[in-house]
Amino acid sequence: MHVLIVISHPRPNSFTHALTQRFAEGAQAAGHTVEFADLHAEGFDPRWQAEDEPQFEDGPSPDDVLAEQARIERCDALCLAFPLYWYGMPALLKGWVDRVFTWNWAYDQVENPDVSLLRDRIGVMLVPAAANTGKWTQDSLGTVAQRIWDEGSMRYFGFKDQRIHVLGGAEGSPARREGLLAQAYDAGQALG
Ligand SMILES: Cc1cc2nc3c(=O)[nH]c(=O)nc-3n(C[C@H](O)[C@H](O)[C@H](O)COP(=O)(O)O)c2cc1C
């Protein structure tokens, strides 16, 4: 299986990057190939512009969007790694989702209103968060955020097998963080 890991964090030595590294090591130990897409390092522009709109009239998409779509087309599993920002994705990653999963490529809403145009893929999210995991699971806001990612976007884009890992306590003790890194490794190894 080929795994694309999309990272949204400005600092290469961040805990988010460390989690992706361990996830990749787990995936490689299970025999998978891994490709990284570091959106900050690559300077991806998350702003939806007038050039993004012709897709709705069967027009072309901008070149940077086509390049991201090509990466997705060659993967069997997509992992999004991002720190939780106000119960959601960082703006950079939200803009990547907005721009890249285009009408007529990811979905159509005309012939098949609820059917993705993409083949089935495994979708993984690695989401470090400062709050502890108990707060996330007890808090209905956590449930809502997870439903928006799952049903509101990723399932819509053909990601049938969703594995959302909210890793609470990401700013905790070294032992706590080591436990979260181990969870990321296990998630990579368990890809299939
Ligand atoms: C703008 C911003 C918003 C944040 N919102 C949340 C939040 O809603 N819930 C939470 O538990 N942590 C929140 N955090 C904390 C980050 O999720 C946490 O610092 C990060 O996961 C740690 O990983 P890092 O060291 O890779 O940045 C927020 C941090 C920032 C900078």
Automatic annotation (TrEMBL):
It comes from Actibacterium atlanticum. InterPro entries: Flavodoxin_fold, Flavoprotein-like_sf, NAD(P)H_dehydrogenase_qn. The keyword Manganese does not apply. It comes from the Bacteria. This is Flavodoxin-like protein. Residues 1-186 form the Flavodoxin-like fold domain. Keywords: Oxidoreductase. One of its GO terms (molecular function) is NAD(P)H dehydrogenase (quinone) activity. Belongs to the NAD(P)H dehydrogenase (quinone) family. GO terms for cellular component: cytosol.
